[in-house]
Structure to design on (118 residues):
């Protein structure tokens, strides 16, 4: 990512916020549910409060972003502090309350987060 600093403020070029990579035409997004938690993956289906996401990871804890909206746009700048679960091939989620499309920058930062498991 290309940035420039002017008067102590860092700016990012507009085109550096391109959309995340697609998989079979599916968009990469963060999906927040009412009770199951937060997930990042390829959105296959969304109708009402039901969604199906593919190749997704659970986002149990994140650092380096103040909210999910910033996480979806900027990603994490502290991947070593985040807790993202193993990738699951397919999840069916109910009680979906929010879907936020991710940028390529965010998607790439998620790939830097080690798998959190015991």
């Amino acid at each position: 990512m290309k940035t420039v600093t002017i008067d102590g403020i860092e700016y990012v070029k507009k085109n550096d916020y391109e959309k995340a990579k697609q998989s079979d035409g599916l968009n990469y997004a963060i999906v927040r549910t009412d009770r199951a938690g937060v997930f990042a993956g390829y959105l296959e289906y969304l109708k009402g409060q039901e969604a199906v996401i593919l190749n997704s990871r659970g986002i149990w804890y994140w650092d380096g972003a103040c909210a999910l909206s910033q996480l979806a746009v900027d990603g994490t700048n502290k991947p070593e502090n985040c807790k993202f679960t193993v990738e699951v091939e397919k999840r069916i989620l109910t009680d979906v309350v929010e879907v936020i499309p991710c940028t390529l920058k965010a998607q790439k930062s998620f790939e830097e987060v080690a798998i959190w498991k015991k």
Observations:
- The chain has two helices and seven strands.
- The domain at 16-111 is CATH 2.30.30.100 (SH3 type barrels.).
- The chain has one domain: 16-111.
- The helical segments are 68-74, 104-111.
